């Protein structure tokens, strides 16, 4: 199907309404991103000092998950024109004509309001306000402003994806702390090398869509320099929970080793600059970065659970 035909389909759907299934609306919520949000928020909730009733804790995680889904839906609503021309996104519900932009907007706004109000009423209003700010930051600051205006979009906008463990922490304590900020900082410093590795691999897609990702604006070499620089910073930040005393020795050793592997792969991206070897190096770092973040938070959670059982 040509670009013009897809555009006509979207226009016609706007008048008749989409024929989206439940699966299409789930896809609109970016379930892969949502799963990472749920997991990191849960770890933040479990690591927070004090206790929370299991039902209240479940409500908090559900609201954070729905808020993340709302952000995804609003992102897809606004970025439908970009998604339409990029190979990895053109099959999403809006560009494929299954859901209209109006339906996506209404869906995203309903989820946003519902998740924030429910979290505020049933858990605490600090956590609810934090969730509202996170949705606003991702949908407005990142999606509507930064993404199309600066190659630093991922650096600044990445804060939205790093807030969930702090919201989980706030759901228990009603506030935030230095420990919760470190959880935020791990994700915040992880985001640029993670996404820039993908941006190097998919440079042509972003160029076609007119998105000013760093490789397209500052060049591939500059991007490789910055991937390495952020990776050098990330490695010790990943060990910080152990240094600060709220993670054990097992986490300290594992996080140091994982950080070392991350650095080696980032150095490989920096060294291999042309052809298939460069593409493979970028893809390898991108895939490992997902495992790296999951492993760090899984280790934190595992140690917390073991400590709780032994206490």
Automatic annotation (TrEMBL):
InterPro entries: Protohaem_IX_farnesylTrfase, UbiA_prenyltransferase, UbiA_prenylTrfase_CS, UbiA_sf. It comes from the Bacteria. It is an enzyme of class 2 (transferase). The chain crosses the membrane at residues 33-49, 55-78, 99-119, 125-146, 153-172, 178-201, 227-244, 250-270, 282-301. The keyword Iron-sulfur does not apply. It catalyses: heme b + (2E,6E)-farnesyl diphosphate + H2O = Fe(II)-heme o + diphosphate. Belongs to the UbiA prenyltransferase family. Protoheme IX farnesyltransferase subfamily. This is Protoheme IX farnesyltransferase. The lineage of its organism: Bacteria, Pseudomonadati, Pseudomonadota, Alphaproteobacteria, Hyphomicrobiales.
